[in-house]
Amino acid sequence: MNPLADKLADYVNFSPIIYKAFSEIDRKFFVPIGLEKHAYNITPLPLADNSTISSPLTIAKMTILLEPENVDKVLEIGSGSGYQAAILSKIVRRVFTVERICPLVKEAKQKFEKLRLFNINIKCDDGRNGWREFAPYERILFSAATDEIPKELFAQLDENGFILAPINKENKQIITRFYKNGKKEEIEKCEFVPLKKGIIL
């Protein structure tokens, strides 16, 4: 049994489809070996190269703020363990996710295959490049904090879409929505690992 969806519902206002996604995707499958007993805690857990699998509460908030229902394509920057992409795969038609740590990409691919999540596409690359081949995207989600959004990613954004990202601002991070027309909307404080350059083979 996966008790996390009910636990998270005490903190956030889930729509039925997002609640169902969190019920169907078991976080235990995505945490590192040896940390399974912590899978249902509302805490981040360590991954390779000082990366983390975010707190499930953070994942829940970002998923809700992304407004993914009735969306065709989402691009995620920073796949990590693959947990966020797996959640989104139950809500949107196609998920594209980019991770700079190649061993994490290999592990995530294996997890997606075992769970038969065939609408997720993942690759190892510097996330700041996005994934131009399949653009435009209705939503672009950053799962790592950045000082600014690369112009390349605005170029890959659908005219009516938005980018959701943790932005570094005055010694804190703020979840912010960016629109194609230049508008932006600051939402709330958050805590993410930093977006890094390059790839790790």
UniProtKB/TrEMBL annotation:
Protein keywords: Cytoplasm, Methyltransferase, S-adenosyl-L-methionine, Transferase
MF terms in GO: protein-L-isoaspartate (D-aspartate) O-methyltransferase activity
Enzyme Commission number(s) from the entry: 2.1.1.77
Keyword Transferase (UniProt): yes
InterPro entries linked: PCMT (IPR000682), SAM-dependent_MTases_sf (IPR029063)
Protein location: Cytoplasm
SUPFAM superfamilies registered for this protein in UniProt: S-adenosyl-L-methionine-dependent methyltransferases (SSF53335)
Record's GO cellular component terms: cytoplasm
Biological process terms in GO annotation: methylation; protein repair
PROSITE patterns the UniProt entry points to: PCMT
Pfam families: PCMT (PF01135)
Family note: Belongs to the methyltransferase superfamily. L-isoaspartyl/D-aspartyl protein methyltransferase family.
Full protein name: Protein-L-isoaspartate O-methyltransferase
Native source species: Lebetimonas natsushimae
